[in-house]
Amino acid sequence: MKNVFLYDTTLRDGxxxxxVSFSVADKVRIAxxxxxxxxxxxxxxxxxxxxxxxxxxxxxxxxKLKHAKIAAFGSTRRAHVAVEKEDNIQKLIAANxxxxxxxxxxxxxxxxxxxxxxxxxNLKMIRESVGYLVSKGREVIYDAEHFFDAYKDDxxxxxxxxxxxxxxGASTLVLCDTNGGTMPNExxxxxxxxxxKIGTPLGIHVxxxxxxxxxxxxxxxxxxxxxxxxxVNGYGERSGNADLCVIIPxxxxxxxxxxxxxxxxxxxxxxxxxxxxLANLRPNDKQPYVGNSAFAHKGGMHVNAVEKNPKTFEHINxxxxxxxxxxxxxxxxxxxxxxxxxxxxxxxxxxxxxVTKEIIESLKKLEHEGYEFEAxxxxxxxxxxxxxxxxKTFFKLEGFRVIVEKREDNRLISEATIKVKxxxxxxxxxxxxxxxxxxxxxxxxxxxxxxxxxxxxxRLADFKxxxxxxxxxxAAKVRVLIESSDDREIxxxxxxxxxxxxxxxxxxxxxxxxxxxKGAK
Length: 521
Known about the structure:
The structure is a single chain. The chain has 18 helices and 16 strands. By secondary structure, it is an alpha/beta fold. Helix 1 runs antiparallel to helix 12 (268-279), helix 6 crosses helix 7 and helix 8 packs parallel to helix 9.
């Protein structure tokens, strides 16, 4: 099995992506998690650019990593400045990391228009910067910025920049597609050409501006690159960097490269979501391998085939990367969807039973009205239990009222009054909230907690509203999806109405009933 080394730049290049930011504590936690996953190099930041990265290097130095080497990132020295007097170079040394990654110019366009120096001066800047850092005992990885564009413009000069870094002691020469516009056939051709002229190990660093980052990274490895750089979930500037959560399983499962262990590969979904959580970003459901929808099946014929043999519609076993198969319920559902989904819920019954047909007909009718059950598993389970006559009514609404009042001091006050009947007892109560839905939720809990204390543990985790037909304006139906959680699980419920409060009420009632039915087992 061929070896390939993984280089993560989530903490530096990834944070240049729009909406991505980490505290120093976040960066330390991510570094520890990446180390545990088996990443070989973790680029922590640019100590010459901001105080946060300097603090990170101070803190990570006290952490005992099991596997990874921490790299500080920076550039070659400035033009006409002695390397030993270059402040940014000195900060790289002060970061006290075993590895330093520096980038230099490969493209004469940048040399002339950005650095405004001669080609020879640029080569001197590369040689002196790499050589100086090597003399200080650092492993130096050289990132050849814009290399593919440079090679297409002037291949001889682009290769000379690599030779300058290699001659000065760089351990790896990383070919960068900084603008992200190189096509896969070009990557293969250029890596193969460079490999013949350069003996130093090559790496690949690709941006995703043309949607080719993961493919180009994998193909570069196939062509001979021994190091592949990327970020968790593809974070990065503009359209992002190459996504390690796609690259790793492609290299490991599809091509047989040794990059992380089988055991750690099964933690890939967990790592992906851990980083999303610290970045305060919602996971990308459509992300290959690790996305929530990566192994989700909706069409009835697909589900029927997967039930017989998962290989019919799954390119790998989802458990290899820590994911799992999901059966979606919608108007496209057939008997197999219903059977597999109800089996997941522990509510199995014969496929030819009348209840199966009733559930499918109810689904199609409700989805035609605007309901959506893919993210509302709690509401779907209630629908099934009603069809199977296993549902129980815990309370009856006698009425509610919601008031939103704007005070003189510009404060908005929301208050809900509710009357429910539990058995023979009627409860009439009120509660305030941050908004009308929060107030209604609080009033309902207040009314029911004396009868069902277990609902105190339920929390409203997420709340989404979608207008179903914008053309009808304010008279449009809305769909409300509510995500609730307790200490054991998370469940979704749905409501649909022309009135947003009524749609919320439907979803809230399903949320409470789902919790109570679970407790009634």
